[in-house]
Amino acid sequence: NFGGTEDPEMRPCTNAYMLVYIAESARTDVLCPVSRCDIPESLRERFIEEQNLEEAKRLDKERGHLYMVIYLLLEEDFYGWQ
After folding, report:
1. For residue 32, is pLDDT > 80?
2. What is the distance of C-alpha 26 from the center of its chain?
3. How many alpha carbons fall within 13 Å on the CB side of residue 28?
4. pLDDT of residue 33
5. What is the residue-averaged pLDDT of the chain?
6. What are the boundaries of each domain within the chain?
7. Residue 81 contacts residue 73 (beta carbons within 8 Å)
8. Sign of the four-CA dihedral 28, 31, 36, 39
9. Where does the pLDDT of residue 75 fall: very low under 50, low under 70, confident under 90, or very high at 90 and above?
10. Whether 20 contacts 29, CB under 8 Å
11. pLDDT score of 22
């Protein structure tokens, strides 16, 4: 509206951050490397889907100037409007 951008400035989903204290004795257990098998398959699929959607949006926005909407009206479209 009013000459602003079409995309909202804030994403519909945002992240929240939290400060967590870790006991020194548990540090190696808590801060261990995360392997691919530690992440559930459903989350991996969701991350890939989100990346694909963001890439598609980026490409649409980048290529938007190449397209335009054209309305074609024929003579028969005017019949019945008098």
Report:
1. yes
2. 36
3. 1
4. 93
5. 86
6. 1-81
7. no
8. positive
9. confident
10. no
11. 94
Task: Render pLDDT for 34-54 as a digit per residue (tens, 0 to 9).
Answer: 999 999 999 999 999 999 999
* Tokens coding 10: 């804030």
Distance separating alpha carbons of residues 50 and 55, to the nearest angstrom:
9
CA–CA distance, 15 with 13 (Å, rounded to integer) = 7
* DSSP-derived secondary structure for the chain: -TT--SS-SS-SS----------GGGHHHHTPPPPGGGS-HHHHHHHHHHHHHHHHHHHHHHHGGG--------GGGGTT--
Contacts of 36 (CB under 8 A, 6+ apart): 44
Q: Are 22 and 30 in contact (CB under 8 A)?
A: yes
Written as six digits, the tokens of 2 are: 């009013």
